[in-house]
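Progress against Task 2.4 (sequence-to-structure conversion) is shown through the following example record, which the project officer requested during the mid-term review.
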Amino acid sequence: MHNMQQMMGQVKKMQKEMKEQMESLRVEASSGGGIVTVSMNGTKHLLSVKIDPEAVKGGDVEMLEDLLQAAVNEAVRKADQALAEKLGGLAGGMNLPGMF
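Structure tokens generated for the chain above:
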């Protein structure tokens, strides 16, 4: 029983460390040669969006939507990759499909 409590304590500590790592992670991605740039953290919260003013002058909203979507998708991919690299050691080699 004592071993189980000790193991649960270790799991809680690992969860806390993983959460802290995810919240502190920052990734940036852009599309359209930098026309749209987004910043995201490891919990996949969008932190900022920057759009080059030249992009809105032409009035092509559909293109801007596509560029925004591409930049966000790339940021999600980068966050997943960075988390897998950063947190892989904390998971102790466990295979956790879908975790990131």
